Amino acid sequence: MKKIPLILFVLLVLAAVASGGLLQERQAAVISARGSSSSSSSSSGGSIDLSLAMSAVAFEYHGTTLTLNKPTGTVDGNFLLAVVYSQGYAPSYTITPPSGWTQIGSTQNFSGEDIYAGVYYKRASSEGASWGWTVPDNDTCGVVWRITGVVASGDPEDATRYVGTQAWDGGTTTTWNAITTSTAGSAIIGIRTQNDASTVSSASMTERYDTNNKIVIIADTQASAGSSGSKSATESAAGQRIKIMIALKPE
Asked: How far apart are CA 148 and CA 80, in angstroms?
């Protein structure tokens, strides 16, 4: 058996050690890449889309049923948000939503005035062409908004809602107090109802609805959890207002 010179043997040993180190480095790189991929995929989630269709009734003078049509493009699982407003002279006032709709909070009333507003939601499931809210024989209007990306089950609210009123002498700027969210990506939605016609010229969030002058909706998503800060909208006229701000939780 031929003997290997000592110097050659040493060189072979050093080459083997170096090769093993490179292999370990490659294995570590592969593990690191897998870890990065896993971390990235686990942090991804759905986002709320506030740009979708609405269906509204501008104003109905008297009648005991307010009919709101299903927004275009609605499919099972979509989140639906409805706002119903009424003003009149009923001594006792109740807004009754259709079957399957859940009220957010309670029917709000401007103290001392016959002005009422209710906010409702449901998750679409084999819906018909429209829904009917039962209201007293007063002047009413409403809107249904199709939203995607909202949590698919349970309570959709992600913060304690703000509810307030504003009198004639409160000026032409509507202000909503801050709410505090728990989840990144929540949708902040400010709702204003008013007894007299008024349009919005500017707002601190995107104006989503301002068609019939009685209901205004502004809304945006909030990247990080925490305080929304106060929100505002500059309007063309003062009036007696009911103000509601809610946060919707993302999937």
From this structure: 9
